[in-house]
From TrEMBL:
<dbReference type="GO" id="GO:0004144">
    <property type="term" value="F:diacylglycerol O-acyltransferase activity"/>
</dbReference>
<dbReference type="Pfam" id="PF03007">
    <property type="entry name" value="WS_DGAT_cat"/>
</dbReference>
<dbReference type="InterPro" id="IPR004255">
    <property type="entry name" value="O-acyltransferase_WSD1_N"/>
</dbReference>
<dbReference type="Pfam" id="PF06974">
    <property type="entry name" value="WS_DGAT_C"/>
</dbReference>
<comment type="pathway">
    <text>Lipid metabolism.</text>
</comment>
<dbReference type="GO" id="GO:0005886">
    <property type="term" value="C:plasma membrane"/>
</dbReference>
<dbReference type="GO" id="GO:0001666">
    <property type="term" value="P:response to hypoxia"/>
</dbReference>
<feature type="compositionally biased region" description="Low complexity">
    <location>
        <begin position="486"/>
        <end position="505"/>
    </location>
</feature>
<comment type="pathway">
    <text>Glycerolipid metabolism; triacylglycerol biosynthesis.</text>
</comment>
<dbReference type="GO" id="GO:0051701">
    <property type="term" value="P:biological process involved in interaction with host"/>
</dbReference>
<feature type="region of interest" description="Disordered">
    <location>
        <begin position="482"/>
        <end position="512"/>
    </location>
</feature>
<dbReference type="InterPro" id="IPR045034">
    <property type="entry name" value="O-acyltransferase_WSD1-like"/>
</dbReference>
<feature type="domain" description="O-acyltransferase WSD1-like N-terminal">
    <location>
        <begin position="4"/>
        <end position="285"/>
    </location>
</feature>
<dbReference type="GO" id="GO:0019432">
    <property type="term" value="P:triglyceride biosynthetic process"/>
</dbReference>
<dbReference type="InterPro" id="IPR009721">
    <property type="entry name" value="O-acyltransferase_WSD1_C"/>
</dbReference>
<keyword id="KW-0808">Transferase</keyword>
<dbReference type="InterPro" id="IPR023213">
    <property type="entry name" value="CAT-like_dom_sf"/>
</dbReference>
Length: 512
């Protein structure tokens, strides 16, 4: 049997009338190379039925413990029909990028049905150029960003011709315990909870200087340093930066509405800037996000005089995502140099900041997300998580936003014979983490960005995507001037695929 971990349960119970907790993505497909020239719902359902056994998370549903006395269990649902989870729609003419983003945002707003396996797929036809989009979402309690992307690859092929897949092997089903077993487990874990809290507290003390909000309390750094000295771990860690998050227009309670924008940047250009500057690709990504947020805030006269604070999820998986259900992640909390006016200085500081954060994480991996979740009794988690998140948003924000960079394959993939041109990831908004989330995914020579926002906090998500692309153009120009060499994309046509109007200096209007 498999039970949700305390961290998985936090994602489950974070949901409320204004918060959905699924990770998702939009794949843009070119069906020209498919044998039929189209991607149909019937073909997708057939593919899922043949490969469902490769992705355990897609056949699991939740089994709740009575009265919420313990965390729910996963139970295998062998009777469910994948066809009930696959939907199809057609965009109205002309089928442009703004219409796709609006349709996807509307789907992303809706919570998954907890009485069934926690996933959905939506085929969206009618895109310009004969393209099709596939929006897929899975609940965050079942997968994290990296395992979600890996889950999708089980359905993909290296050629338009689908590969042969071994049929499923017989195995005992994963089932939840009966009522008596659930209650017995709840009693046992409740009795052991005080000891578990003490162990988690002992492991968390050394991370106090990187935990949002707690890190800003008087004495937090001193206590964390003393704990590391006593344990003998991480005694030469780089000093933790200030993690006091300023308030911005996109911080505060969110509504149930969502906006979505997306766009792509040539990965070769990003690598060229990184190599020329002596930093990593992820450092350039953080710089682009910092530059875009700075421009957006300057446009509104709302730029804080100190850095924004971002939570950067970090995968800590030891096994393939297909072998596990749930989350295996931590987070680095890091400043973003939004307060730095010079683009090259912003790039340098972003590189230094991220290197220090990575060194700390490598020498003393932050386990505080899991440890803090373990300290809260299951019944309290179920009742209080969403309330605590909303209260946190009304006080000083713990962080300003989440920024995530998920690595992907650098070769073309195919779904039902159609080539995947791009994959734009989407993630979660909460009251505490802010009304905007920026996630990017590297795929087939491109860096694909997906921005999810709450329009009550950040209405013009397309403009923010435009600022990211403008920031990349700025870095390319400055790097070319500094090195005397042209960027890889100079004079070349980019790879085939959607180039959203967000690349223009004006936002694409998305109807309210």
């Amino acid at each position: 049997m498999r039970q949700l971990t305390p961290l998985d349960a936090q994602f489950l119970h974070a949901e409320s009338a204004t918060t959905t907790a699924h990770v998702a993505g939009v794949a843009i497909l070119d069906p020209a190379c498919a044998s039929t020239g189209v991607v149909t719902r019937e073909a997708l359902v057939g593919l899922l039925r043949r490969r469902l056994h490769l992705v355990p998370a897609l056949s699991m549903r939740l089994a709740d413990v009575p009265l919420g006395l313990d965390h729910p269990y996963w139970t295998e649902d062998r009777a469910f029909d994948v066809a009930d989870h696959v939907h199809e729609t057609v965009l109205p003419m002309p089928g442009d990028e703004a219409q796709l983003a609006e349709a996807v945002a509307a789907i992303h707003e809706r919570r998954l049905d907890r009485g069934r396996p926690l996933w959905e797929m939506h085929l969206i036809h009618g895109l310009t150029g004969g393209r099709t989009a596939l929006y897929a979402k899975v609940h965050h309690c079942a997968v994290d960003g990296v395992s979600g992307a890996e889950t999708l690859t089980a359905l993909l092929d290296l050629t338009p011709e689908p590969r042969a897949v071994e049929p499923p092997q017989e195995h005992p089903p994963t089932v939840a315990p009966g009522l008596a077993g659930m209650l017995a487990g709840a009693v046992t874990r409740s009795a052991a909870h005080p000891a578990r809290v003490l162990r988690s507290l002992g492991r968390t003390v050394a991370d106090l200087d990187v935990v949002p909000v707690i890190a800003t309390l008087p004495g937090a750094r001193t206590v964390a340093a003393a704990a590391r000295r006593l344990s003998g771990d991480g005694r030469d860690l780089p000093p933790a930066p200030s993690l006091s998050a300023p308030r911005t227009p996109f911080n505060g309670p969110i509504s149930a509405r969502r906006r979505f924008s997306y766009g792509s940047i040539p990965l070769a250009d990003v690598r060229w800037v990184a190599r020329s500057s002596g930093i990593s690709v992820n450092d350039v990504v953080m710089t682009l996000c910092a530059s875009a947020l700075r421009s957006w805030l300057l446009d509104r006269g709302a730029l804080p005089d100190r850095p924004l604070i971002a939570a950067v999820p970090v995968a800590v998986r030891r096994a393939s995502a297909r072998e596990v259900v749930g989350n295996q992640l931590s987070a680095m909390i890091t400043p973003m140099p939004t307060d730095v006016a010079c683009p090259l200085e912003r790039l340098r500081i972003a590189g230094e900041t991220m290197r220090a954060a990575k060194r700390r994480f490598a020498r003393s991996p932050a386990t505080w997300p899991s440890e803090l979740s373990s300290m809260v009794p299951a019944a309290v988690t179920a009742l209080a998580t969403s309330v605590v998140l909303r209260l946190a948003s009304m006080a000083a924000p713990p962080v300003n936003l989440l920024v995530s960079n998920v690595p992907g394959p650098q070769f073309p993939l195919y779904l039902c014979g159609a080539r995947v041109l791009a994959y734009y990831p989407m993630s979660v908004l909460t009251d505490a983490s802010g009304g905007v989330n920026i996630t990017c995914f590297s795929y087939d020579g491109s860096l694909d960005f997906g921005i999810v926002s709450c329009p009550d906090r950040l209405e013009d998500a397309w403009r923010l995507m435009g600022h990211i692309q403008e920031a990349m153009d700025e870095l390319l120009t400055l790097t070319e001037q500094a090195t005397g060499t042209a960027p890889p994309s100079a004079g070349r046509v980019g790879r085939a695929g959607p180039r959203p109007a967000a690349a223009a200096p004006v936002p694409v209007p998305v109807p309210a």
